[in-house]
Amino acid sequence: MESFFSTFLQEAITFFAIMDPIGISAIALSILSSNITKSEINKVAYKTTLTIIIAFFVVLIAGEFVLKIFGLDINSLKVMGGLVLLLMAISMINGNNSLVSNKDRKPNEELAIIPIAIPIVFGTGLFSTIIIFKHEAKDFIDLISISLAYCINAIIFYFILKNSIYIKKFLGVTGQNIITKLMGLIVGALAIQFIISGIVALTKGYLA
């Protein structure tokens, strides 16, 4: 039981850091209409959260199958996924995000699925992390841990995005930037672990 909670906590923190709900909520607000109402943002939060939950289970169930179709090694994905996470972490720490200025004239509810849910929230970083976590899972209990950790973060994301207007006023730009930079450090550390783990495994495989 102690091992379960330890693994669950690690997965939950990892998902939270990659999702960066407070930082993403600021990006979402920059894409949505400046005069968006509370009712509209509630709908956007609901649609976005539902989309990322569906995407999670699709990747959890079919992700490794896709890798097999293309003949890709999970350790290669670890290295590539780690590099993607590392670039994401550097961007978070530097405070750079090209998606912030991506103004779109579509209705707010349409923007909830693309680009907010995919690829802003559920991008290559989450995709790689989910597949790696699943590959490392030893039994069904581990899969429950991964699913629970992700779904709890999805719910947290929902409430943060739903109340993002108030959170932005409370934290201000400086507060949001500080949190995003801290999450960037965690994502960066995770990226290094993925890269080293993947390289070591690939090296052993080629030398064997």
UniProtKB/TrEMBL annotation:
Q: Mind telling me which GO cellular component terms the entry cites?
A: plasma membrane
Location(s) in or outside the cell: Cell membrane
Q: How does it sit in the membrane?
A: Multi-pass membrane protein
Keyword annotations from UniProtKB, A to Z: Cell membrane, Membrane, Transmembrane, Transmembrane helix
InterPro entries listed in its UniProt record: Multi_antbiot-R_MarC
| Record field: transmembrane | 12-32, 44-67, 79-99, 111-134, 140-161, 182-202
**A single Pfam family, by name?**
MarC
> May I ask which residue range the UniProt record assigns to the signal sequence?
none
This protein's source sits in the domain of life called Bacteria
Mainly localized where? membrane
> Is Isomerase among the key words of this record?
no
Q: Which family does it belong to?
A: Belongs to the UPF0056 (MarC) family.
Record protein name field: UPF0056 membrane protein
| Record organism | Malaciobacter mytili LMG 24559
